Amino acid sequence: MQYRPNSGVFPNSASGQHRPVLSELSARSRDIFRTIVEAYVETGEPVGSRTLARRLGQLTGGQLSPATIRNVMSDLEELGLLFAPHTSAGRLPTDLGLRLFVDGLMEVGGLTEAERSSIDVQCATAGRSLPEVLDQATLMLSGLSRCAGMVMAPKTDRPLKHIEFVHLGPGRALVVMVTEGGMVENRIVDVPLGLPPSALVEATNYLTTRLAGRTLGLGRDQILEELESERAALDELTKKVVAAGLASWSKEDNSGALIVRGQSHLLDDVTEVGDLERLRSLFAALEAKEQLLKLVEAAEVAEGVQIFIGAENDLFGLAGCSAVISPYRDSQRRLIGAIGVIGPSRINYARIIPMVDYTAKVIGRILG
Predict the structure, then answer these.
(1) Are 273 and 165 within 8 A, CB to CB?
(2) CA distances (Å), 171 to each of 121, 174, 184, 187, 237, in order?
(3) Residue 333: its pLDDT value, please?
(4) How far apart are CA 241 and CA 355, in angstroms?
(5) Cβ proximity of 38 and 99 under 8 Å
(6) Which of 149, 151, 268, 363 could make an SS bond with 142 (beta carbons 3.0 to 4.6 A apart)?
(7) Which residues are paired to 261 by β-bridges?
């Protein structure tokens, strides 16, 4: 399948900067440029004219002299698509070059039945809450892509059907929240020692009565006001259980949780001290999550898989990384969250794009 930025399947998410278009390149230039990028994705090394001559000969059966190839490479460099990391080295694609390749030259294939089956199995919901499924899906994407996996978990702003407290042991209880769409989230909370079972039942009935059919955000303030004004007909121990349950879903949780797994894969491409320093800056940014949340939000407002390459985004500019992210939606096409991977700029886009796309669709089916 040919990747097209405006096809509605994998739309382009790059910034609006001016960049060369394919019509500016001759057929020979396109072949040489594509071969350089594909060799870079495969090896991560600069590609020289002699290596290119051999590769092109194997692919096309024709022969181009190294001198002719060097002239074309110089033209591509002037267009900002290639650069030479060292004076005597071959060429590497720039971020702009990678963008042109991804938007216009890359062939996006489909997943094999085995790959689809593996994703289906690892995203299965049997015996697991939705947060656990999302965490597993993120780990699965990280393992398959050899990149860092990431997911924006659903915002807890959907109408609730039921809240229940389950005794776990002395001083501990499980809070189970079920939305009208069937999503389940669990939290473990501290409760007073010696709490009678009747207090958990009473807290369950109290919260379910006031929150059923409403979002947690809408109901929380009313309940807290009742507790503070003593209008809630509850004993002191039950009030503490109710307050603990509400606190377990903080206002920060209501904006959606960001999960990042497999960051260690980003170290696989490190070859120099400078690379390590840049990755440390990226790790710090991922830890803070603020910039990554903005990236995910940008992907959420679009349809299909979004691709962010290097300097197109402040988060990746210095680290030389890219992200492939897809929003996922429920059966009513309501936006729920986003999932994807972060890796070096030479990630195998053609393989990872359909992988992220299919995983997002599987999660959408799970949401129903």
Answers:
(1) no
(2) 36, 11, 23, 14, 12
(3) 77
(4) 43
(5) no
(6) 149
(7) 149
> Alpha-carbon Rg of the chain, whole angstroms?
26
Q: Does residue 165 come out as left (phi exceeding 0), alpha (psi in the -120 to 50 range) or beta?
A: beta
Q: Residue 305 in contact with residue 10, Cβ under 8 Å?
A: yes
Q: What is the DSSP string of 111-161?
A: PPHHHHHHHHHHT--TT--HHHHHHHHHHHHHHHHTSEEEEEPPPS-SPEE
Q: What is the mean pLDDT of the chain?
A: 78
Kind plus residue range of the DSSP H or E element containing 258: strand 258-261
Instruction: Locate 94 and state its tokens.
Output: 């720039």
d(C-alpha 156, C-alpha 281), whole Å: 31
Would you say the pTM of this structure is higher than 0.90? Answer: no
Query: pLDDT band for position 98 (50/70/90)?
Result: very high
Reduced to 3 states (helix: H, G, I; strand: E, B; else coil), residue 171 is coil
Chain-centroid distance, C-alpha 60: 37
* Residue 296: strand, helix, or coil: helix
